[in-house]
Specification:
Blueprint: H1 6-11, H2 16-58
Length: about 60
Amino acid sequence: MAFDSWAAFWAMGHHGPYVWSAYGLTAIIVIWNILQPGWRHRRWLKAQAQLQRRKIIKG
């Protein structure tokens, strides 16, 4: 599909708000799915380190 101008590209034949919000929401979800496991893993590692410190202190 060819567009006459950048404005026509962004407007997408008056479907621009729907199209670009769908792309934006998809990008947010993909980024969340990439970052969230790392955050969970880091939180798990901190919790494990805390448990190990408690075990060492209690002896």
